[in-house]
Specification:
alpha/beta, Trna Endonuclease, Chain: A, domain 1, 5 strands
Length: 150
């Protein structure tokens, strides 16, 4: 994620591991200390990054391999964005969702586009060494070992 952001948005402010949403405190019977409120806020979901362009905000989630669950997460983050008090000053700007992936899964990419999520392939400089370190099953899938004709 950091390598992608430095390359694609070198002059643009961004934050990583941004907590989204709000924590409803009304269910508590007593006030919280600042430290307790900080601890409770850690229960919020977080996205990989938020890019703060002057004209729009981009929420980014990055995965080595694009998988369908990431589309659901980005749809959730889109909803939580306008419930995030720390981002209130950006609520009126356009919001873009972005999936960054190294290894393509065509079905996931199609699902992302259907959900109005921009899918961007980015292959980090260390991709080859990462591929060499993962198991054959992760690289090739489960059908690679099935004999032909079965």
């Amino acid at each position: 994620m950091s390598e992608f952001l430095r390359k694609e948005y070198p002059e643009t402010p961004y934050s990583t591991n941004v907590r989204l949403g709000s924590v409803p405190l009304e269910f508590l019977s007593r006030p919280l200390s600042p430290e307790q409120a900080r601890q409770l806020s850690r229960l919020k979901r977080y996205c990989d990054a938020v890019v703060f362009l002057p004209e729009k905000t981009i929420i980014v989630e990055a995965k080595m391999r694009a998988e369908p669950g990431i589309v659901t997460l980005l749809v959730l983050y889109r909803r939580l964005f306008r419930e995030t008090p720390d981002l209130r000053e950006r609520w009126d700007l356009p919001l873009e969702m972005m999936l960054v992936y190294a290894i393509e899964d065509p079905v996931t990419i199609e699902m992302a586009r259907e959900a109005q999520i921009r899918a961007v392939q980015y292959q980090p400089t260390w991709l080859d060494s990462w591929l060499a370190s993962v198991s054959v099953r992760k690289r090739e899938g489960t059908l690679a070992s099935v004999p032909k004709g079965v």
